[in-house]
Automatic annotation (TrEMBL):
PAS domain boundaries: 18-62, 128-183
Domain Sigma-54 factor interaction: 268-498
Species annotation: Desulfofundulus salinus
SMART domains associated with the record: AAA (SM00382), PAS (SM00091)
Chain coiled-coil ranges: 108-135
Keyword field: ATP-binding, Coiled coil, DNA-binding, Nucleotide-binding, Transcription, Transcription regulation
The protein's name in its UniProt record: Sigma-54-dependent transcriptional regulator
An example Gene Ontology molecular-function term: ATP binding
Entry keyword annotation includes Nucleotidyltransferase: no
Cited InterPro entries: AAA+_ATPase (IPR003593), AAA_lid_NorR (IPR058031), Homeodomain-like_sf (IPR009057), HTH_Fis (IPR002197), P-loop_NTPase (IPR027417), PAS (IPR000014), PAS-like_dom_sf (IPR035965), PAS_fold (IPR013767)
Biological-process GO terms, alphabetical: regulation of DNA-templated transcription
Highest classification ranks of the organism: Bacteria, Bacillati, Bacillota, Clostridia, Eubacteriales
């Protein structure tokens, strides 16, 4: 049955007065797509008079409209957006159906510019709230907030763990049912900030602050923050700050630090039979004048033993001078040790320079890595040991020195003598008293003492309160061979303190090479020898240290706690090219 324009207009005629009254835009077309309704709001928005629009094809009036598509398909367009000028609109377009026949289509549009702005603001507020919530739950400090009625509105994981509850069970309960912090509820009627209060929570003395919360001048609740989960943590931080202030205000102490022994026998950590014997030997040997040769692998603590010898000796008030024989270039070593006269060579300092032996007069000189000293210098050192005098470069006048010589090496001096790289007479002069420091793998009983020592040390330096290592980490530490000895263990513990999040060092805080070693042992222990596993781990550690140091071998050796000579040897052993 055909429906003409007159009939469709009659059908919609009674609604015109309603459409003309609404604030929304209303545009309707008949079955031919000609405009039959164009209300005043539409006139204003499209800047097109109704008398001109009525009866014309809709595309001539509103070119971008979707009403012709609705006529064609009979399918409505719901929630479509369009822009006119600077305003955003949402429109619903629906077919007009009579007796199952499409007789037209109508579009009703509403400006939503302000709503869109509000939605964007709401989205941004949600993002900020989400960020704040993430910060709230990610921080290591414990937080708990209550409303005016004292019921818990928010608390984060660290606070829940400290209180021994879960977040889910604590929310909505009264603060007095969950926390012993009764004074938090008192803020609700005093309104006063409380800072640095000591509160005992489950046997731990914590340091907290309590802050009232206001909204438009009205108190709406209170929040309590645990500043330190243990008073010891606060004391450790205070000691760290105090030390930094002393170092800052007394730079001369740092400047002269190289001339002062800093360690005593008590700083040698270990209670194994070998270490107790070594400590006792140091106390006895320190009292005499004899030259001492300290032997041991790199990283075992040879310099620390040298310090202890000096501080336990009658010379403890005199200077302690250290010289690394491998670090000073051969052409500079003689002037470094014996000094020089003005004009002794091109570039010599005006007035000359005193050497290390003269600086050590009345005290101790520590010749570290003596096995790397060039042969010509070995002869000069022998003369000093025999004659107790030195000659500056460019000077013929001998100068008497009263110095005790302590030497150290990680090299096999007997093998060097056989190879012609070390003087036998110097060896016997140095080896009057020989002290051997056992490597860490030979004294596993000392590992717990060393780990606890480094935990205490780095707690002070980092201002943390780490209580120990996890069982998995302990198993990992015990299974490792420690080629870098105590120095490597110290580096591993310091690395862990840079990454630790709570009060326990976990596997994830360990260096990758230790983690890989542990995983490898678990997978392959049944068909791999210990020697093979250790070699693989050692090679992996070398590669990682070289990569981290960008190929700098001195830095890689320092990271591993081994000498540069030992690094080269290991690189050659494993076919690592530098």
């Amino acid at each position: 049955m055909a429906i003409n324009k007159l009939e469709s207009t009659a059908f919609l005629g009674n609604e015109l007065s309603i459409f003309n009254s609404v604030h929304n835009m209303v545009v309707a077309v008949d079955y031919q797509g000609r405009v039959i309704i164009f209300n005043p709001t539409s006139e204003r928005v499209f800047n097109y008079p109704a008398e001109k629009a009525l009866g014309r094809p809709i595309r001539e009036v509103v070119p971008f409209t979707g009403l012709p598509k609705v006529l064609q398909t009979g399918k409505p367009h719901i929630g479509r957006k369009f822009v006119v000028g600077n305003a955003l609109y949402v429109v619903n377009r629906t077919p007009i159906i009579r007796n199952n026949t499409i007789v037209g289509a109508i579009g009703v549009a509403q400006e939503i510019t302000e709503l869109q702005h509000l939605a964007q603001e709401l989205k941004e507020i949600k993002e900020v709230n989400g960020l704040l919530e993430n910060i709230f739950h990610s921080t290591h400090e414990g937080y708990i907030a209550t409303g005016n009625d004292g019921r818990i509105l928010m608390l984060n994981g660290p606070m829940a763990e400290l209180l021994g509850v879960t977040i889910e069970t604590a929310l909505g309960r009264h603060i007095r049912e969950v926390a012993p912090d009764k004074r938090l509820h008192q803020i609700l009627w005093t309104g006063k900030l409380q800072y640095g209060e000591v509160v005992r929570i489950r046997g731990r003395e914590t340091v907290v602050m309590r802050v009232p919360l206001y909204n438009q001048g009205k108190m709406v609740g209170a929040v309590s923050k645990v500043m330190f989960q243990d008073v010891e943590q606060l004391l450790a931080l205070a000691e760290k700050i105090s030390t930094q202030r002393r170092n800052f205000s007394c730079p001369s102490i740092t400047h002269n630090d190289n001339q002062t022994a800093r360690y005593t026998v008590d700083n040698l950590i270990g209670a194994s039979r070998d270490m107790l014997r070594l400590k006792e030997t140091i106390r006895r040997v320190a009292q005499g004048p004899s030259t001492v040769l300290i032997r041991g692998e790199s990283g075992t603590g040879k310099e620390l033993v040298a310090h202890a010898l000096h501080t336990a000796s009658p010379r403890h008030r005199g200077p302690f001078i250290k010289v690394n024989c491998a670090a000073v270039p051969e052409n500079l070593l003689e002037s470094e040790l014996f000094g020089y006269q003005e004009g002794a060579f091109t570039g010599a300092r005006k007035g000359g320079q005193i050497g290390k032996f003269e600086q050590a007069h009345g005290g101790t000189i520590f010749l570290d890595e003596i096995g790397d000293m060039p042969l010509p210098m070995q002869a000069k050192i022998l003369r000093v040991l025999q004659e107790k005098e030195i000659e500056r470069l460019g000077d013929t006048r001998p100068r008497a020195v009263d110095v005790r010589v302590v030497a150290a090496t990680n090299r096999d001096l007997e093998e060097l003598i056989r190879q012609g790289h070390f003087r036998e007479d110097l060896y016997y002069r140095l080896n009057v008293v020989s002290l051997y420091i056992p490597p860490l793998r030979e004294r596993p009983d000392d590992l717990p003492l060393l780990v606890n020592h480094f935990i205490k040390k780095f707690n002070r330096e980092f201002g943390l309160l780490v209580r120990g290592v996890s069982p998995e980490v302990w198993e990992m530490l015990c299974a490792y061979d420690w080629p870098g000895n105590v120095r490597e263990l110290e580096n591993v513990m310091e690395r862990a303190f840079n990454l630790v999040e709570g009060d326990t060092i976990e596997v994830k805080h360990m260096p990758p090479y230790l983690q890989k070693m542990s995983q490898s042992k678990k997978r392959n222990l049944h068909n791999r020898t210990l020697a093979t596993l250790l070699q693989e781990v050692e090679k992996e550690a070398l590669l990682e240290a070289l990569a981290t140091a960008g190929g700098n071998k001195m830095q890689a050796a320092k990271t591993l706690g081994i000498s540069r000579a030992w690094l080269y040897k290991k690189m050659k052993q494993y076919g690592i090219r530098g």
